[in-house]
Fold each of these.
Amino acid sequence: MLKFIRTVCLLLFNLQLLLAQPVEVYFEQGNRAYSEGKYQDAADLYHKIIEKGVASGEVYFNLGNTYYKLDQIGKTILYYEKAQQYLEGDPALEQNMKLASLKVVDKIEPIPKLFLEEWWNAVTHIFPLTIIAWLSYILFFLIMIFAAFYLLFPKKIFIRAIWIFVTLFVIALSFYLSRIYQFESSKYGVILASKVSVVSEPSLTGSEVFIIHEGTKVAINREIDGWFEISLADGKTGWLKTNDLELI
C-alpha cells in the first residue's frame, strides 16, 4: 500500500513538472520575442500561459507592456490592472500605468471621498494583501504560543503579551477582511472599443447619455440580458453592451 501511494505521488509530481515546463518555455519565448520587437508573437505566447490557467502578475505585466508597444491602449490598461492584483505597490507597474493613462482619451475626475473613507482606504492599503495575511497568521501563532506559556507558567507578562498580540491580530484581520470585501464586492472592467455610446437603459432604443473611449476603467453595478450598468469615477452612470468591455 505504501509503495502504491509513493508511486501515485511520484506520478503526480512528474505530471506537475510536465505541465509547468511549457509555461516556463512560453514565458521565456515571449520575453525573447518581446526583446526582438516581435510584439504580437510575444502577446500570443503570454496568452498561451493564461490559457493553461496560470495567473501571474509577471505575465499580466508583460502583456500590458506588449500591448503598449502594439498601441492597443485598452488591453494595456486591462492587463496592467490585472497585474496590480498580484503586484500591488510595484514601482515599475505604477510608473507604466501612469504612462499608459496619458494615452486614454477620457480624463475623469473622481468624486471627492469623505475624510474617514479616504483615511481607512489609505491605512488598509499600506501593505500588500499577502503581507497582511502572513502578518495575521504570525500574530495568531504568537497568541497561541504565549497562551501555552501562560498555562505552563501563569505570569502577568504573558497576559500582557497576549493582549498586545490579540490587539494587533484584530487590527490586521480587520484590514484583511476589509480588503477582501472590497475585492469581492467591487467589479470593474476596461473599455476595449475605440468609442462606446453609453445609454440610459439596457436597450438599443435607449438615449445616449455620454460617450467613453478605449482604456477607460469603469465600475460594473449589475448585468441584465447582455448589458452592463456601469458608473464612472465622477458619478456618471449608464448602460452599455457587455462585449464593449472586458472584466478585470
Amino acid sequence: MPIQVDIRQLVKVIASAVDLVGVDDVFHGRRVGVMAVECAKYLGWDQEQLALLFDAGLLHDCGVSSTRVHRTLVNELDWSEAFIHCDKGGKLLNSFAPLAHLAPIIIYHHSHWDELVKRDLDPTTALMANLIYMIDRVDVCAAKYYGDNSLLLHMDEIRDLVMRHRGIFFAPQLVDVFLEASRAEAFWLLLNAEFIALYSAQMEQFSQKLQIGITQLKQFALIVAEIVDAKSHFTTDHSFGVARLTRFLAMNAGFEGNHLDILEIAALLHDIGKLQVPDEILESTAELSPVERVLMKKHSFTTFQILKHISCIDELANWASQHHESLNGNGYPFRLQATDISLEARIIKVADVFQALAQNRPYRSSMAAADILVLMRQMQMNNELDEAMVNYVAQHLDECHVMAVGR
C-alpha cells in the first residue's frame, strides 16, 4: 500500500526545526504565526487566508540555519543582509510544490513597505509579507521580556516602536490593526508557551489538507537536509553524504522499494537536532567542556522528538535518532542494547561515522579512506559498529568514499 503523509505534519517538522536555531527560545516562528493571525482578523480575511498566513509565520525563517545569523536578526531591528535568508527560504519552499505558494511571502518578509509597494506583487501577498515582517520585529522586541514575565509592562513601548515606522517599514493599515489588536492584554498572553500549542491545533483545522507520497516526502527531506547542512561550512553536504552512503549500504543488505527510500529519508533527516547547537560549539577547535558535550548529545533526542510528527512512518524517528547508539550499550540518547538496535539504525551509524571522518572538521582534516577503515575497525572491535557493515565498507572502500564525499 502506498505511503501517504499529511502535509500538516511536514509543516510541523520544518517549523520545529527552524525554531531550534533560537537555541534557548524555540517558539519564535509560532509566536509570529499567532500574532499575525490575530492582527489579520481585523482585516476581515477569510479562514483560508488566515491559515496560509499562519503557515508563513511558522516557516518564515526557514532560510536561517546559523545561530550567529539568528542572533543578528533578533538583536537588530533592521539588518542590511536580512534579504539573504529571505531569498534562501523562498528558494527552498519553491523547490517543494506543496509549500511553494508560501515562497513569495517568505522572500519579501523583510522588505520595507515603502519599497515593497513599488514592486509588481499581488496586493494580498505584499500585505501578508509585510505583516510577517512587522510581527517578526514585534516578537524580537518582546523576546527579552518572556523569561521574567514582564511583557505586559512593556507592551506600550513595543506598540510605540511599531507606530514610529508606520508607512516606512510597515503598511499604515497593518500598523493600525496591530495597534487595535494589541491593546488587549489577551493578545500578549497568547504568546505563553502553554497556549501556543492549543492555538496551533485550532489553526490546523482550517489549514491545507494534502496527502503526499514517498517521492514528495524525499523532496521534503532534501529541503530539511539543506537547512541542516547549511549550519556550518564544516557540515556542508554531511546529511546528503550520509544519505548516499546509507542507500548504498542498504541496497547491499537487500533493502528495496519503500523500505530503502524511507531509510534514505531517515538518513537525510538524522541531524535535525543539530540546528539547536550553537555555531561556536560545532566549530570549536578545542576540546568541548562537559556542558558543551551535553548540548551536543542532546541533538539526536531532539531529532527523535521532531520526527515523531510524521506519525504514519513510526520507524523514521527511530532510525534517524539512533545514529549514536552503540552495540555495547554505551551509546546515546537511549543507551540501547545491541538486540534493540535495528539494522537500519546500524547502517545509518556506519554511514554517519564514515562521512564525518571523510569531511574536514575544525579540530582535524579529512581522513583518507584507508585511515577511516582503520578507525572503524577499532570501533567495531569495541562493539560500537556492526561488523557486517564494516566488512562491506572494507570490500567497497573506494565506492563508499565516493558516496560519502560526493565525488
